Amino acid sequence: MKAVVKWLDHMTFVGESGSGHAVVMDGPPESGGRNLGIRPMEMLLLGAGGCTSFDVIGILKKSRQAVTGCEAQITAERADADPKVFTRIHIHFVVRGKDLSSKHVERAIGLSAEKYCSASIMLGKTAEVTHDFEIVEE
User: What does the alpha-carbon distance between residue 70 and residue 29 come to, in Å, rounded to a whole number?
Assistant: First the structure.
């Protein structure tokens, strides 16, 4: 896997993934940025959320659950001093579907958290990562 991050100006950067996608990253004005893009630490949270959601949906589909939606709502806390690593991350899943089994949803989230989601498992080396969920019947 490869990626390139190029400085544009001020504190604005464009990241290009090996798969050919790009994203703009920027900092707040107080750090010299112009607030034109997502913050790099926000990208880490989005990556973890995307990774675990990918797992949860895949596991639920393999379990023949009639899942129609999944939203990972992520909150995080960071250390006060540099390096300001994440110290706590909580992922609240809102899973939508028809007649979803609470047992299957809990199992899917657990498997992602403990075995499959490289991003959240890696972040778990510095942060306490917790999960919970709710099921919305559709």
Answer: 34
